[in-house]
Amino acid sequence: MRHLHVDVVVIGGGPVGENVADRAVQGGLETVIVEQDLVGGECSYWACMPSKALLRPGQALRAAQAVPGAAEAVTGTLNVPEVLRRRDAFAHNWSDTGQVRWLQGAGIGLVRGRGRISGEREVTVTADGEAVVISARHAIAIATGSIASMPDIPGLSAARPWTSREATSTHSIPASLAIIGGGVIATEIATAYSSLGADVTIIARGNLLESLEPFVGDRVAESLRSSGVRVQTGTGTIRLDRTADGVVIETTRGTVTAAEVLIATGRAPATHDLGLETVGLSPGHWLATDDTLRVPGYDWLYAVGDVNGRALLTHQGKYQARAAGDVIAARAKGLLISDTAWGTHVATADHVAVPQVVFTDPEIAAVGLTADQARAAGMEIRVLDYNLGFVAGASLSRDDYNGTARMIVDTKHNVVVGATFVGPDVAELLHAATTAIVAQVPIDRLWHVVPAYPTISEIWLRLLEQYGRPAARSVASREEMTHA
Ligand SMILES: Cc1cc2nc3c(=O)[nH]c(=O)nc-3n(C[C@H](O)[C@H](O)[C@H](O)COP(=O)(O)OP(=O)(O)OC[C@H]3O[C@@H](n4cnc5c(N)ncnc54)[C@H](O)[C@@H]3O)c2cc1C
Ligand SMILES: NC(=O)c1ccc[n+]([C@@H]2O[C@H](COP(=O)([O-])OP(=O)(O)OC[C@H]3O[C@@H](n4cnc5c(N)ncnc54)[C@H](O)[C@@H]3O)[C@@H](O)[C@H]2O)c1
């Protein structure tokens, strides 16, 4: 049995593990990643990249079809083999050679195999019957991500359901697809597969996209229905059977038959079979952390990315990873720790401003609190809504532009605390909203942030006009005003 001694061991070489390791190495620590599968993790091969590659061609086609003059030039449908070929390229043909080269260049070690914690500051890695024991002088960071959560529905495993892995890596589009779940994966995969010619049915126990503003799910349901997707909301699943005709799904509203069924009912933490019990932690749960991403009660153990359940998004996990890698290095060297809110070593934004784009048609971009969440937090708010189609940049971009913007203002502190945009090409509006929330830019100063004409960003001006100019609203403090 081999025995290695390093400063830091990172279990899981997804986007988050890679970033923890990179920051720790840049902080001067000898670091290895333990990876059981492909370096790059879920995001690169079975999640963000391949799913967005499947979505983009349909989005580009719809955009051209909505502009008279260009619409006449596009008369065909999507070329499915070409879409899948491009998707394969974005998933690097499921080879991690490039990512491994990046690790080598960054000075990060790699041990392939399944890692399990085998004691304090110790990980045992097994691969092909061989074991390597790695002792960490300073820290172990768990970045093992999440896996599809499978609901307890009779007949489920015998029906051989798809998870997002099969849906994002398939090499042929089934004639029909039933999707159980109404969240982000369900709506994105429904959008992609319907544009690729599959007959899609969504079976959702509630409404669609329930964690977002209520009008979001309504708009996506309406749009999916108009493109031929059957959207069955408020529908429970009773049992599944795989038959010669495909998968037969008995629901509370009747029977659905489809060639394949995708389960998209959320994620579970990848904390089973990780040896957590050897150090007194329970397997199978999200690993709670403090804001430096350290597991309370363990000065050597960190949990970063999906596995801590704080925000299941690549960009937010990588944000945590930068803080975690830096704080591990700072603690190892006995340096001062910057762990007050918004410090270098904490992931404060997880609680305040987590941006998310859902790449459906229409696109959804949201950050911060919804109106209901703000009220539940006891804030005094104003909810500003505006029809995005009235903005010149939006109507120029396509004739059928239909969209909504909502901004939530904390009226006590005069700052934006939430924003939601629904409509074509709204993704790029999101970073401005995230900046306004994180930087707590006073509304009165936002009036000086001038959006270019004619861009969709003029929505900011329209929302501000609804809120009111500072002088017109009230002159709260006379010293703000000077006399000419
Ligand atoms: C279909 C889908 C689409 C998504 N689209 C987006 C998107 O567009 N934008 C976005 O921001 N987020 C998206 N996400 C979420 C995103 O994929 C995750 O937030 C992100 O992958 C989390 O990164 P991670 O490094 O924490 O975990 P992962 O990417 O899951 O990586 C964990 C790694 O740990 C390894 N591992 C696990 N256990 C062990 C062990 N015991 N030993 C060794 N290695 C181990 C795994 O093999 C894996 O490589 C999507 C998710 C899904 C499912
Ligand atoms: N564009 C993106 O950023 C993107 C894309 C895909 C996935 N993701 C990430 O992946 C995560 C997982 O996505 P998801 O769609 O699986 O989760 P989700 O939390 O968005 O949606 C889960 C859905 O499953 C339903 N559900 C839960 N348990 C159920 C049960 N027992 N029976 C029937 N329905 C049930 C819920 O009501 C909900 O509609 C998301 O939280 C998101 O952060 C992000």
TrEMBL record:
GO terms for molecular function: dihydrolipoyl dehydrogenase (NADH) activity; flavin adenine dinucleotide binding. NAD(+) binds at residues 181-188, 266. InterPro entries: Class-I_Pyr_Nuc-Dis_Oxidored, FAD/NAD-bd_sf, FAD/NAD-binding_dom, FAD/NAD-linked_Rdtase_dimer_sf, Pyr_nuc-diS_OxRdtase, Pyr_nucl-diS_OxRdtase_dimer. Binds 1 FAD per subunit. Gene3D superfamilies: 3.30.390.30, FAD/NAD(P)-binding domain. Residues 7-316 form the FAD/NAD(P)-binding domain. Keywords: FAD, Flavoprotein, NAD, Nucleotide-binding. FAD binds at residues 52, 115, 144-146, 306. GO terms for biological process: 2-oxoglutarate metabolic process. The keyword NAD applies. Residues 354-460 form the Pyridine nucleotide-disulphide oxidoreductase dimerisation domain. Disulfide bonds join 43-48. Coiled coil: none annotated. The keyword NAD applies. Its cofactor is FAD. Belongs to the class-I pyridine nucleotide-disulfide oxidoreductase family. This is NAD(P)/FAD-dependent oxidoreductase. It comes from Orlajensenia leifsoniae.
